[in-house]
Design brief:
alpha/beta; Nucleotidyltransferase, domain 5; 2 domains; six-stranded mixed sheet; five-stranded mixed sheet; 11 strands; 34% helix; 29% strand
């Protein structure tokens, strides 16, 4: 398998990893008050330096393309586009939710990736992992839905459910009395990781789903808040 460098800047935690053959060569994770525009590229350079890997030896650059923070997504995507344009390398745009779920590789469970979208809504998708991680399958598409709607879906699942993502605690606290057999991912795996991005990219590469730098774009599940507010104002004025 190719050597992949994966970047995630979709939420408060920024992470990057270098992986090959399903194994981590190096990984770093930051959750500081600095913006991703300040940390993303220095983090990638430090990762390459510490792993003694030349950037030209990376076969594919992967990035979480959404859902997530509009600004955060643009920072990560811009970084990967710039690198791939310069080096003429392919890239992979992966679902942030799938990358989160792949943190749970090795578990036998339904993984509910949930990112807090505010106002009791979450960006979410369900995945099933079985045979000690040998089988990974998507059960639902990436969506922006209310916590209550997600709760109704999870009540019909009779397998262990693990929440992962910055919406995990929100969902667990609301559903712990109504949904059976639910748990939260351990602290070191609950947030986005470069490893998860790399594993999602590895699956995309196997399917021939890589992109050129020019084709790489963010994938939003809903309009930015400013645009939603503008549309609501225009509707009210009509």
């Amino acid at each position: 398998m190719p050597m992949i460098l994966g970047i995630d800047t979709s939420a408060k935690t920024a992470s990057a990893a270098i992986c090959a053959d399903g194994k981590i060569i190096a990984q770093t994770q930051l959750n500081t008050r600095l913006t991703h525009s300040q940390t993303a590229l220095p983090m990638v350079q430090a990762l390459l330096d510490c792993a003694t890997v030349d950037i030209a030896d990376i076969d594919c650059f992967a990035v979480s393309a959404g859902p997530g923070s509009f600004t955060g997504l643009r920072i990560g995507i811009t970084a990967v586009k710039s690198i791939c344009f310069t080096l003429n390398k392919p890239c992979a745009a992966v679902s942030t939710l799938e990358a989160l779920a792949r943190n749970m590789t090795g578990m036998d469970a339904v993984v509910c990736a949930a990112m807090d979208a505010r106002c009791r809504q979450v960006y979410t998708a369900l995945f099933e992992i079985s045979d000690n991680g040998a089988n990974f399958s998507r059960l639902t598409p990436d969506e922006a839905i209310s916590v209550e709607e997600l709760e109704g879906r999870l009540k019909n699942i009779d397998k262990k459910i693990i929440f992962v993502g910055d919406g995990a605690e929100l969902c667990y606290n609301i559903m712990k009395e109504s949904v059976e057999n639910i748990a939260i991912a351990p602290p070191m795996l609950i947030n986005q990781t470069g490893y998860g991005v790399c594993m999602a990219a590895e699956a995309a590469i196997e399917k021939g789903e890589t992109l050129s730098a020019a084709e790489l774009m963010p994938k939003y599940l809903r309009l930015p808040q400013a645009e939603r507010e503008r549309m609501a104002k225009l509707k009210a004025e009509q």
